[in-house]
Amino acid sequence: MGTSHPPLCPPGIKCGGVLSAPSGNFSSPNFPGPYPYETECTWLIVVAEGSSVLLSFSHFELEYHAACAYDYLQVYNGAARDRGNLLGTFCGHSPPPPFSSAWHVMAVVFRSDRHVAKRGFAAAYRKDACGGTLTGLSGEITSPRYPESYPNDVECRWRIGGTGGGGPLTLVFADFQVEGGQGCSFDYVALFDGPTATSPRLGRYCGSARPPRTTSSTPYLLVLFKSDFNIGGRGFKAHFYSATTGTGLYPLLSIRGKQQ
Ligand SMILES: [Ca+2]
Ligand SMILES: [Ca+2]
């Protein structure tokens, strides 16, 4: 009998698991009653490849500690409990902001210690129709429903790069038609020099003029597409490639992208 191991979850309590439906809900054990002591639950959310996961919280109440050392909730981009994939650690009464994974897998870990329990949390997730993580040395991205008009109220993030030994990435737009407006405040495509939207911005574009060829200085490039509540367009189609490979891919895509 494995009596030397502390139970990860008290018997009879449903805790964690794999969530593979396109949308769903989950909560801390015994919610809305107080969660049990000494519990650890991991939920793995897996949606269709090429899409991302949107996570939001409708209730959040965990024991507070300045460093969340007692009870906490952690959200990871991807399956691994790897600090590099950690999107945030939360406790107390401040609900986490809505999260969007950069990949089709997201992990949520809940942990409680042996004293003080609160009501816990309730969360909902859904598959985001666009965006995702692209780790190939080259590829193509398009706005949702391209070349049909893109939907209103969408936000898509493509995180490109992250391959071992990957170098700067170049993005070339082959087609571009996005609702224009002063400062591109309605619909736009924004490019960032890194894996997230907090990285330095390389440009923000709208209208019908194709954005210039853009090369990152890091091995990552984030493409963000946002549309507002009305007026769409054909959207965009763009190719990307990593400049470090000595293969024939680079000149080929270069020439195709220039269209000269
Ligand atoms: Ca506690
Ligand atoms: Ca619009």
From TrEMBL:
Entry's Pfam families? CUB
InterPro entries to which the protein is assigned, alphabetical = CUB_dom, Sperma_CUB_dom_sf
Keywords on this record?
Answer: Disulfide bond, Repeat
Record-annotated CUB domain positions: 15-128, 130-243
Q: Which PANTHER family match?
A: CUB DOMAIN-CONTAINING PROTEIN 2 (PTHR24251:SF47), OVOCHYMASE-RELATED (PTHR24251)
How is this protein named in the record?
Answer: Cub domain-containing protein 2
Question: Which organism was this protein described from?
Answer: Limosa lapponica baueri
Taxonomic lineage: Eukaryota, Metazoa, Chordata, Craniata, Vertebrata
